[in-house]
Amino acid sequence: DATGTTATSTCTSGCSPTTATWSFATPSGTLGVSQPYTNNGLVITAYGFLNNGTATKLYGKNEGGDESGLGINGTVDNEIGNTNFVQLDLSQVIASGATSATMMIGSVQSGEGYNIYGSSTKGTLGTVLVSNGHTDQTAFAIPSYPAYPYISVRASVADVLVDAVSATSPGGCTITITGSTPPVITCPGDKQLQYGASTNPSNTGTATATCNSVGGATITYHDAAGAINCSGHAGIVRTWTATDACGNSASCTQNITYNCLPLQLSCSGGSGQTCTAFSGSLSVSGGSAPYKFSIVAGALPPGLTLNTNTGAITGTPTTAGSYTFTAGVTDATGTTATSTCTSGCSPTTATWSFATPSGTLGVSQPYTNDGLVITAYGFLNNGTATKLYGKNQGGDESGLGINGTVDDEIGNTNFVQLDLSQVIASGATSATIMIGSVQSGEGYNIYGSSTKGTLGTLLVSNGHTDQTAFAIPSYPAYPYISVRASVADVLVDAVSATSSPGCTITITASSSTDVSSGDTATIGFWQNKNGQAVIDCFNGGKNSTTLGSTLASYFPYLYGSHAGTNNLTGKSNAYIAALYENYFSASGPKVNAEMLATALASYTTISSFGGSCGASYGFNSSATGTAEKTYNVGANGSAIGLSNNTSYTVYALLQQANNEKQNGTFNSDATTFNAIFDGINNAGDIQ
Questions:
Q1: Which residues of 262-296 are buried (b: 16+ CB within 10 A; e: fewer)?
Q2: What letter does residue 571 receive in the DSSP assignment?
Q3: Could you read off the pLDDT of 92-146 as tens digits, one per residue?
Q4: How many helices (H) and strands (E) does the chain have?
Q5: 3-state DSSP helix/strand/coil percent for the chain, to nearest 5?
Q6: Which of 186, 567, 608, 620 is the most exposed place for a label (fewest CB within 10 A)?
Q7: Alpha-carbon distance 224 to 236, whole Å?
Q8: In which element (H, E) is residue 210 found?
Q9: CA angle 271, 276, 282 (to 5 degrees)
Q10: Angle at 39 between CA 35 and CA 41, to 5 degrees
């Protein structure tokens, strides 16, 4: 006042003590010899000293857990040792009247300890308050507070950090400012990973937030263990939190799980006819969607194409023949797999002839068969590359030699090396080699090596077999096989190998006919007593499960292991008859009844399946039945991924429905499938 008298404020309402905490984890990194820390308007200044009182730089650590706090720069782990100390100036805290002062020490590992000192003089340790303390990351009362304005921490054993100080201020005049609108946070989508893949947000995605407060929002996350799924590993429940400058926060949750199964790709042997639309599909399991499919060896029949996004194989074959191929798949994590044939598979033997091209060639020459490449190289004995020569003069005078030598063949100062790495990688077995132009008294050596341009290990010494294939010794131990003459000169004629069973589609010349009377029945037939009797007749009676298991194996997404409650595996004829009645009684379009009616008609008319069960009701019977009859889809083709005004076999149309069930597009196309199968059932009605 005017007389110079002073007073401090006393709170009369809405007052409460407040506890402030000064954390020393930030700022992090190398600091100066002093560092101020402010909270609730009060400053604690930290100082770094050597034991002799010399000032030294501080270091802020913020590595999480108990590895956060203030240490001494340049020491072991940048922490406080026993030759230095961190001193805290609490004079402002004490002057404010704050009580209940505590402190927390961090990075106190097993066997480590610390001393606490109190002093009235900056830069001196003063009085020991705690000797060889061991409490880690747990706050304890500062001894003798508030007697000493300077509190120091020095390690007694090894090294430690000073983590934080807290104190409770007396109730003062308080104005509280709050924000009213929390941030809006958006989580990244749930993520499925191969086990062992990085779970860092750079790989799994980061949350975003919008905020109305000044200063934006800070986004953090916390991980907790999730449930253990069929992969055998616990997932991660990641909680993302956005906090604005006013302390308002919002959270969302992201689930990270691991694939239950390894990535696998399978195919089964298929068949089709020229001029008739074909529909098939590769089957993938495990891994992380989306997938990308490809043909990595061999080729599809002319006229067929692979949908690289879905694995569907469709088109109209143009050329009869048997076509073997290997498919590949890559999932969202970059994991790859090649196809394994599950049925209708047979190994194939490929022969790489070196007789063509003929004449002078380069220092290397590729030869391709069945999608696999063998590359031949020409070398002098010292490893210098030299040109090859292709001979094609008939008899045993055909094969690969060295250009410019006697008869342009392989001598004993040079060699031809074959790179078989692609053949080996494909899993091919029974590899053979044939040597030509081995005249009386001539011979050759065979070598195996892991390095291009070097002969390596001798596998055959002075061989004499001419124009007769023999097993490549030690195959597949060596990717490089070399031939050099031991006496005079020879040629390397050919290599053969038997590939592992690939996916095979066999196309025959078209002989299909359109669906006609006696091939099918309308849906009303199968729900009346006659149709029910036909179903109960199959394979010996109503308790037989052959019908259900057969439909499940051919159409796994309609009636098999991927069909949910419609899985017919192991189900009896009586069960299927009752199921059909449920389909028929459904209101609206009866696509399930129409589709099952077509499948039942196909089964009835294949003599090895349906036997004579349908004969008395007017059904036809043959080796392939209605399944191989054709039906023109008219304008309905494009809606289900096929061509308009094109004839497809009944089997192919059922497979297309199965494919769409697999791809999740069936329900949106159900009306179109209803029209197609209704048309088939009416076109072939037994009447």
A1: ebebbbbbbbbbbebbbbbbbbbebbbeebebebe
A2: -
A3: 999 888 899 999 999 999 999 999 999 999 999 999 999 999 999 999 999 999 9
A4: 12, 44
A5: 20, 40, 40
A6: 608
A7: 6
A8: strand 208-210
A9: 45
A10: 105
